[in-house]
Fold:
Amino acid sequence: MLNDITAAREAALAEVETASTLDDVTGLTSRLTGKKGDLAQLKTRLGSLDTVEEKKAAGQAINEAVAAVSAALEQRRSTLSAAALVERVAAERLDLTEFVTAPTRGHAHLVTQAWERLEDVFIGLGFQIAEGPEVETDWHNFEALNMPIGHPARGEWDTLFVDHVPPGGEAGTTVLRTHTSPVQIRTMLESEPPIYIVAPGRVFRRDTPDATHMPVFHQIEGLVIDRDITMADLAGTIEAFTKAFFGSGFTSRLRPSYFPFTEPSAEFDIQRPDGGWIELGGCGMVHPNVLRAGGLDPEQWSGFAFGFGIDRMAKERHGVDDIRDMYTNDIRFLEQFR
Ligand code: FA5
Structure:
């Protein structure tokens, strides 16, 4: 009998070792040490023993076996509980790193940076900042700029017309401005000379995107109106601006051209350090008809105006090959220009 008890005890202890979950331990507890458990079952055989001593010894051995197995089960339960706790803590662990590390700072887009830098440079040269609406009247965008209806030069701007009829006006006379030049007219009508302003802003054309064109892009208009302003003032201002914006390695040139609202007119090109020339804008002396549209007497006042492409300037300043790269919003590209 004692041998059977020892064997049952060893078998029970071995089984406890194989319990791999807390549920296993619970199941074993009732099966091995419960009132009807394997070890308790041995007690039913005590009656078949001959002597009181044998019964006593066997009873004691069974009690010891139950105690040993219970202790082993308890030990197993606490080991598995600790492991389960470690596992749960790991599973429920909160990643707080985003709260303890410094947040990543964003930065202005390449074109916004150029826009702000242009404002700084021109403020440094004594100009003030002006602005006008992106949705314009045909009169401000064309007519007052010496391009009456039917003027062939209107065809050079692939205009987007807005489906809007102004009160008392006609259909087809509201446009998305094709350039920032209408701000010249608004400024002349709203203020008295001397005028020294630049007007950066968004403009729209029905242009097909390519390496140097976008249908939505940005220009900065410049307008100077004072007494005895000459082409030399325009050339000097543009050269001073080129050096201040691009650096001393760049130089500018004026190439004869035509705009209905300036006379004479020129294209403004810059020469890159590698020797190549690129057109950045148009300029010229403000046409007398434009001064009149702005309410000024051309016999008393003269001035110059210019309009540069901001996107193209950002492109050249940073050596970007294709203007479209600036608008695909690829963060890997944009992050290079902090
Ligand atoms: C004009 O828009 C004139 N208003 C400029 C002007 C102002 C002349 C004052 C005289 C006096 P133009 O269409 O050439 O001119 O555009 C000026 C500049 O805008 C171009 O030289 C170029 O740098 C930029 N530009 C023109 N079209 C695009 C385009 N689709 N995408 C990006 N930049 C453009």
Q: What stands out?
A: Residues 52-91 form the longest helix (40 residues). The CA atoms of residues 253 and 269 lie 5 Å apart. Strands lie at 128-129, 135-137, 160-161, 174-176, 195-204, 216-226, 251-259, 262-271, 277-286, 302-309. The radius of gyration is 44 Å.
